[in-house]
């Protein structure tokens, strides 16, 4: 659903640039990490660290959907400062991250549309003031299913709600004259109790997260974060963590924190709770369980098994299996395109349920990784987020440029990553993938894809200077081309990152 929102109405403001969906980031999490939990607590931090980095990001995207064409070419750069303290008195410390991002150039071109915006449910409408609003209808999935049957005559009510056009699910910067954002993206206190062998660690404040069911954006310039408490300890050899969060900072705004709201924006989400455990067995098998809850509106359950086996000297095989289940109440839903009515509707479920299965095998050598993954989503589209502006990623190896998380969609991906250091070119890395998804014929909820098939080709090339005055300077290019029926997208990201200071 969010992929449709991102492509349907391109937002000319900074959040487009700060979008973190790219193959490079996803692969690092999906295939090589058994769990990202341990890396977040810095339990072995012995010294203070202070880093200043510069990022430069050019983003180009061309989208053709039905009768509309969008062309975006934007260029931003920014500075980030990260401070991580040691544990003073072997007990307490503080981590702070802040930064600023500024446009170098921003531009958007929207082609003509054969459809009239005025009066149509689910389309953009330009107000006399020049501000774009989005008028949409709220209906339950059960009602839509009945109306979609050819033997039943019924109609959808006229638009019942209106909101400011915000299809990237991020508050806008206010006006087109606002060309920069500065923000504190992390500011938390960390405390450590217990022994070195069995520490009990507490983090309280504004922090970045990369848990299995709830994570923040790892944007190239300014990331998002959440405010709350995260606990971590070891129980009978298992790494156990518990978090409660009640506010967040989104990546495209200077606002420090703001409350959670439901996807329908009708209700406040007071707290998001996450409980998880990871255990490594003696044979090297790693298992992980996690559950999350957004008040009584949405619950998620996640399980993962990861195993790495040696096949020969310098060659290993990893197997990664995941399963997720989500259950939403209080009319939980999400935005989707209803092809039967040619409308864009916030679809509610009286009793939302969705699940997915994901299995990936990867063959590792000293300098390469070849992988193949399969994902199946059932019951309903998988809803990524716990709240309206949630910037979490679908926790699947099929979370690529698109998420491949439609109802009853079976999707697969094949790809290769290669490190050229083995042939005398250290610092050069490339990767590429091909993915394809297909669903049985669905008559009701069809997001963009009226033939129920989608596919993409994507990848990256990155090079890091190994010596000289600019040692550590990284240049990268990420690309993706996605195709559906009457819908095509091409995206390129050119990145430059340099660590100005490291203390």
From TrEMBL:
The keyword Signal applies. The keyword Iron-sulfur does not apply. Keywords: Signal, Transport. It comes from the Bacteria. One of its GO terms (cellular component) is membrane. Gene3D superfamilies: Porin. InterPro entries: OM_porin_bac, Porin_dom_sf. One of its GO terms (molecular function) is porin activity. Belongs to the outer membrane porin (Opr) (TC 1.B.25) family. This is Outer membrane porin, OprD family. It comes from Zooshikella ganghwensis.
């Amino acid at each position: 659903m969010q992929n449709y929102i991102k492509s349907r109405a391109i937002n000319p403001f900074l959040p487009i640039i700060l979008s973190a969906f790219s193959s490079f980031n996803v692969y690092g999490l999906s295939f090589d990490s058994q769990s990202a939990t341990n890396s977040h607590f810095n339990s072995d931090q012995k010294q203070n660290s202070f880093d200043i980095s510069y990022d430069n990001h050019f983003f180009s995207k061309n989208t053709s959907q039905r009768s509309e064409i969008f062309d975006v070419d934007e260029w931003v750069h920014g500075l980030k400062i990260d401070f991580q303290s040691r544990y003073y008195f072997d007990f307490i410390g503080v981590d702070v991250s802040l930064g600023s991002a500024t446009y170098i150039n921003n531009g958007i071109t929207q082609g003509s549309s054969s459809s009239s915006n005025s009066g149509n449910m689910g389309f953009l409408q330009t107000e006399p003031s020049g501000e774009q609003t989005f008028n949409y209808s709220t209906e339950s999935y059960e009602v839509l299913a009945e109306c979609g049957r050819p033997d039943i005559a019924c109609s959808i009510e006229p638009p019942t709600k209106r909101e400011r056009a915000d299809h990237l699910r991020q508050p806008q910067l206010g006006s087109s004259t606002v060309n920069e954002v500065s923000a504190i993206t992390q500011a938390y206190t960390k405390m450590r109790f217990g022994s070195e062998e069995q520490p009990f660690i507490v983090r309280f404040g504004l922090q970045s997260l990369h848990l299995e069911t709830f994570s923040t954006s790892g944007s190239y310039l300014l990331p998002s974060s959440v405010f709350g408490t995260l606990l971590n300890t070891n129980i009978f050899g298992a790494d156990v963590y518990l978090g409660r969060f009640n506010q967040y900072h989104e990546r495209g705004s200077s606002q420090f924190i703001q409350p959670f709201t439901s996807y329908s924006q009708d209700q406040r989400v007071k707290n998001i709770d996450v409980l998880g455990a990871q255990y490594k067995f003696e044979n090297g098998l790693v298992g992980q369980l996690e559950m999350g809850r957004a008040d009584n509106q949405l619950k998620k359950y996640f399980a993962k098994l990861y195993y790495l086996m040696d096949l020969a000297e310098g060659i290993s095989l990893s197997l990664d299996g995941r399963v997720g289940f989500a259950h939403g109440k209080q009319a939980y839903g999400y935005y989707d395109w209803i092809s039967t009515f040619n409308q864009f509707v916030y679809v509610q479920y009286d009793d939302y349920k969705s699940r997915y299965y994901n299995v990936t095998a990867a063959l590792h050598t000293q300098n390469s990784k070849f992988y193949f993954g399969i994902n199946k989503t059932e019951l309903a589209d998988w809803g990524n987020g716990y709240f309206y502006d949630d910037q979490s990623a679908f926790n699947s190896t099929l979370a690529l440029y698109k998420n491949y998380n439609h109802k009853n969609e079976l999707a697969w991906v094949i790809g290769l990553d290669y490190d050229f250091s083995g042939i005398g070119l250290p610092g050069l890395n490339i990767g590429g993938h091909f993915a394809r998804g297909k669903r049985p014929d669905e008559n009701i909820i069809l997001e963009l894809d009226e033939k129920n098939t989608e596919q993409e080709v994507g990848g990256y090339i990155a090079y890091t200077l190994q010596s000289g005055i600019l040692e550590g300077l990284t240049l990268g290019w990420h690309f993706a081309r996605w195709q559906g029926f009457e819908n095509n997208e091409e995206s390129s990201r050119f990145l430059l990152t340099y660590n100005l200071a490291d203390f």
